[in-house]
């Protein structure tokens, strides 16, 4: 019965240890902001932060994150970098259908936390794992740069 | 504060509650249905506005209201409308149309999604509750503004009566009516009860474009706040008490049946609640998705694959090729094309092929159903709520008013959510489920059990005179008819209006033109895909005209310009795109790569568009798209930033598909699985996209799809410019471009 720390709150869950964190978040804890897109770490829709590292939750078993700090999109507004990213997202009107955007924002916030002034190549490298079927890539790039400048 | 955009089924107000809720002014009006929206040269639809309650019962009003505005005593404005938000920005642009004429702040308008309600909203099946075909703005442009102007006129009249002054001496602004002479003013909320007693004026004057304060100016999306903090509710996010989550397996071969399955192994998995067997599928229901998936993995279902087990892409294409030998239904016949081509000094022939495509919306197909006590409730994201309702009613045997559809934000539509196959599957599962059930497709299910953009095979031929100008143009389209299934009325004399869109109306000045359509069906289910008919035909027409230019040894831009002398709006976008792209200047060379530039021009969805793509091809044949320049004339623009965003989106969507995507079959099975082998464009592959808008006061054109239909020919024409290879088959990866 692993206890998970999500967004600063501890949850003790009666789930199998090999259960991917994604389903524990969505179906058990009820945090549905983290999305399912592919299940094989190929799209980034399920991105969360585990001890600050961007992590695809669909292939991360809960056993691997026991005792670690898990942060999801629902807590991004409590993170100074996350907040800046969200503001930049709003100002650049990035979202379309919105389904991929939780993952995009998590990836972007992790990038900016590691590299406050990312180059285009840094953005490519950090964001290439996140698919957007609505093709909002140009605006994602703009918003990341804007968030970087707003420090 | 932003306007509250309420897409949530939970919060949708039923019309009854809406109508009965205390006081205020309520107006019902009609937005025309899909059929009317389809014909794009038609005059934009007019609104039929009336008091909701009255119009609802008036037989003679012709158009039943399917949209409502309510202004309550606190001056809050609610727009209830059946269009859905799937990324295209309707939840921002539609309130803009209303607010412009109603003279209220955009932030004051709350949007609610109309519940699917055939009985009350009066739109059986395709009548009204469809969002698709790049029609939302086109169909709403006049009705929504008229509805706003009607309500405003009534509020002004009510104020004038109260003050005993002439209405023409009163003005409305920001939700307040003011009498200029005496400087008295009243808020809308203070006037609604009096206004509701007034007759509905027939002819209200609409603002001149020069007086617009909202329309034509960029506004931030109203749905952003919800979509950046994880709060937005998509269908997949629904959670109900005691709900189980279902993982599914559908017959891998179309038309196959479930033969046998050992449920015991699944039931042994902790958290599995139920195994449900259907004719063509099975479902494992669990406490959560992981239990359901584990349960499913423990089963090895046996399928009776049926006659389609031998299907291969080659056999499917052979069928199309054979059908292409036959004459088709004639969609256009100017002059005598056969004779003209026969007599021409030069003849050019080609066959073009486009593959089956999956939609791969970011949110996989899903639907949640609670079926009990004679009531069926659906939680889903759908482009067709009324069709969803009808589908569930038919499967459960319940009357329509016992089926409730709670519609949600759509995690991408692209035509996929015009279909209800996944809703039907969920309802069938719910019929056997103990308690509410959420059915979620895996990505593999989503790709392998999609309904696909048809495979098209087109025969082209043209005759050129001694100046290499075309004297005859022949185009025979062969493929599945989506309309025949979806909207049979749109098929007349064997012509599927969608299948020939962009071909029948090809714009070039050619004296003899013949366009034919051969309907050819196969067991592969087909459906609309972003850009629909135009995405197929524009690629073929714009590639073939490029071939003619190459045969004439002429610049592809100049060749097009010469044949578009009588098409001023077409020429404007063509020239603008070429100019902004720097067409006359050579491209910068890239070491070790072949560079090229290609152009396309189109009229589709009521909008004119031209694109220039700049690409390079490596020695290994990999294509990189560096820059796309797009010029568009989509008539009057409501929210310019949405137009730009939709074009960016359409270009990226179309590029990924043209470069890499095809759904192929072997042994009756789809061979693609996930984003690993159904490759979609990523940020590091996306080009810089520039959009230039032509100022226009013409009626608005659609913008959700043109970006997609225009890009494929610009891309393949650029590849021709770079490599000398003419691509007549998509995706690009089907042809080796190795140096
Ligand atoms: S769902 Fe985890 S990466 Fe796609
Ligand atoms: S906004 Fe729709 S998938 Fe990214």
Description:
The complex is a heterodimer of chains A (151) and B (739). With 151 residues, chain A is of the alpha+beta class. Chain A folds into two domains: 3-75, Ubiquitin-like (UB roll); 76-149, DNA polymerase, domain 1, CATH 1.10.150. In chain A, strand 3 (47-50) and strand 4 form a beta hairpin. Chain A is built from five helices and five strands. The N and C termini of chain A lie far apart (41 Å). In chain A, helix 2 (80-91) packs across helix 3 and helix 2 (80-91) packs across helix 5 (137-149). Chain A has helices at residues 21-29, 80-91, 101-114, 120-127, 137-149, and strands spanning 3-6, 9-12, 47-50, 53-56, 69-71. The relative contact order of chain A is 0.16. Chain B is an alpha+beta fold. In chain B, the strands form eight sheets. In chain B, strands 12-13-10-20-17-18-19 form a seven-stranded mixed sheet. A six-stranded mixed sheet of chain B has the order 1-6-5-4-2-3. The radius of gyration of chain B is 27 Å and the shape is globular. Helix content of chain B is 30%, strand content 24%. In chain B, helix 6 (136-163) crosses helix 7 (188-196). At the A-B interface, helix 1, helix 2, helix 3, helix 4 and helix 5 of A face helix 8, helix 10 and helix 20 of B.
Architecture (CATH level 2) name of the largest domain in chain A: Orthogonal Bundle
Assembly form of the protein: heterodimer
Q: Rg of chain A, please?
A: 15 Å
Stated plainly, the CATH topology of the largest domain in chain A is called DNA polymerase, domain 1
* Sheet with most strands: strand arrangement of chain A: 2-1-5-3-4
Mean pLDDT of chain B: 89
Number of strands of chain A: 5
Largest sheet of chain A: 5 strands, mixed
> What percentage of residues of chain B falls in helices of 4 or more residues?
25-40%
Question: What does the average pLDDT of chain A come to?
Answer: 97
Query: Low-confidence segments of chain B, ≥5 residues, pLDDT <50?
Result: 1-21, 33-63, 118-128
């Amino acid at each position: 019965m692993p206890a998970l720390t999500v967004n600063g709150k501890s949850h003790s869950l009666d789930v199998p240890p090999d259960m991917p964190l994604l389903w524990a978040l969505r179906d058990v804890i009820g945090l549905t902001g983290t999305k399912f897109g592919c299940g094989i770490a190929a799209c980034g829709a399920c991105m969360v932060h585990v001890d600050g590292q961007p992590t695809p939750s669909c292939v991360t078993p809960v056993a691997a994150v026991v005792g670690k700090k898990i942060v999801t999109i629902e807590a991004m507004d409590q993170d100074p970098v996350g907040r800046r990213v969200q503001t930049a997202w709003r100002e650049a009107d990035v979202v379309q259908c919105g389904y991929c955007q939780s993952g995009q924002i998590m990836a972007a916030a992790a990038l900016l936390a590691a590299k406050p002034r990312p180059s285009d190549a840094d953005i490519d490298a950090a964001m290439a794992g996140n698919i957007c079927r609505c093709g909002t890539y140009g605006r994602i790039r703009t918003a990341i740069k804007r968030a970087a400048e707003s420090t | 504060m932003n306007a509250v955009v309420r897409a949530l089924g939970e919060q949708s107000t039923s019309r009854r509650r809406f109508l009965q809720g205390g006081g205020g002014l309520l107006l019902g009006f009609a937005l025309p249905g899909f059929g009317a929206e389809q014909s794009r040269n038609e005059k934009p639809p007019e609104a039929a506005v009336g008091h909701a309650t009255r119009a609802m019962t008036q037989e003679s009003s012709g158009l039943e209201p399917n949209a409502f505005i309510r202004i309550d005593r606190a001056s809050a404005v609610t727009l209830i409308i059946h269009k859905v938000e799937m990324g295209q920005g309707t939840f921002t642009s539609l309130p803009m149309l209303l607010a412009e004429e109603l003279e209220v702040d955009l932030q004051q308008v709350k949007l609610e999604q109309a519940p699917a309600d055939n009985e009350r909203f009066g739109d059986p099946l395709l009548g009204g509750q469809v969002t698709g075909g790049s029609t939302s703005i086109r169909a709403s442009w006049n009705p929504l503004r008229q509805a706003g102007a009607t309500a405003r006129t009534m509020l002004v009249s009510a104020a004038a009566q109260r003050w005993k002054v002439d209405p023409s001496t009163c003005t409305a602004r920001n939700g307040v009516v003011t009498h200029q002479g005496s400087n008295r003013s009243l808020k809308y909320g203070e006037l609604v009860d009096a206004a509701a007693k007034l007759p509905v004026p027939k002819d209200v004057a609409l603002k001149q474009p020069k007086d617009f304060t909202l329309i034509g100016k960029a506004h931030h999306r109203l749905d952003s706040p919800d979509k950046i903090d994880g709060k937005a509710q998509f269908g997949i996010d629904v959670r109900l008490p005691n709900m189980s989550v279902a993982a599914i397996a559908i017959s891998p071969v179309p038309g196959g049946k479930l033969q046998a399955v050992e449920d015991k192994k699944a039931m042994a998995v902790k958290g599995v609640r139920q195994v449900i067997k259907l004719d063509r599928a099975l479902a494992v229901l669990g406490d959560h998705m992981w239990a359901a998936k584990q349960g499913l993995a423990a089963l090895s279902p046996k399928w009776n694959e049926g006659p389609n087990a031998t299907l291969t892409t080659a056999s499917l294409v052979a069928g199309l090729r054979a059908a292409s030998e036959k004459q088709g239904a004639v969609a256009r016949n100017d002059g005598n094309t056969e004779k003209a081509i026969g007599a021409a000094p030069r003849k050019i022939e080609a066959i073009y092929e486009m593959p089956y495509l999956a939609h791969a919306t970011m949110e996989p197909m899903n639907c949640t159903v609670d079926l009990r006590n004679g009531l069926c409730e659906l939680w889903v994201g759908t482009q067709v709520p009324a069709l969803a309702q009808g589908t569930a009613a038919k499967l459960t045997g319940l009357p329509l008013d016992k089926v409730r559809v709670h519609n949600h934000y759509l995690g991408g539509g692209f035509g996929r959510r015009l279909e209800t196959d996944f809703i039907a599957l969920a309802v069938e599962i719910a019929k056997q489920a103990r308690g509410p059930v959420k059915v979620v497709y895996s990505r593999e299910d989503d790709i392998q059990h999609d309904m696909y953009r048809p495979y098209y095979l087109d025969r082209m031929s043209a005759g050129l005179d001694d100046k290499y100008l075309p004297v005859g143009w022949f185009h025979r389209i062969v493929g599945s008819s989506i309309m025949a299934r979806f909207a049979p009325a749109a098929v007349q004399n064997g012509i599927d209006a969608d299948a020939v869109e962009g071909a029948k109306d090809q714009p070039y000045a050619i004296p003899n033109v013949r366009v034919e359509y051969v309907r050819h069906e196969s067991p592969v289910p087909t459906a609309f895909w972003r850009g629909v008919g135009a995405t197929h035909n524009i690629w073929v027409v714009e590639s073939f005209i490029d071939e003619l230019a190459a045969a004439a040894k002429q610049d592809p831009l100049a060749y097009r310009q010469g044949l578009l002398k009588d098409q001023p709006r077409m020429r404007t976008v063509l020239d603008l795109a070429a100019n902004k792209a720097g067409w006359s200047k050579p491209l910068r060379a890239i070491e070790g790569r072949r560079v090229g530039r290609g152009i396309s021009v189109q009229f589709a969805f009521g909008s004119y568009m031209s694109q220039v793509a700049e690409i390079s091809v490596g020695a290994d044949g990999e294509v990189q798209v560096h820059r796309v320049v797009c010029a568009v004339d989509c008539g009057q623009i409501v929210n310019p930033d949405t137009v730009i965003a939709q074009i960016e989106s359409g270009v990226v969507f179309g590029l990924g598909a043209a470069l890499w995507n095809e759904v192929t079959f072997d042994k009756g099975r789809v061979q693609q699985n996930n984003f690993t082998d159904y490759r979609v464009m990523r940020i590091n592959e996306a080009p810089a996209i520039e959009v230039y808008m032509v100022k226009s006061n013409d009626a608005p054109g659609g913008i959700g799809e043109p970006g997609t239909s225009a890009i494929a020919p610009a891309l393949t024409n650029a590849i021709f410019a770079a490599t000398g290879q003419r691509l007549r088959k998509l995706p690009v990866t089907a042809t080796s471009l190795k140096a």
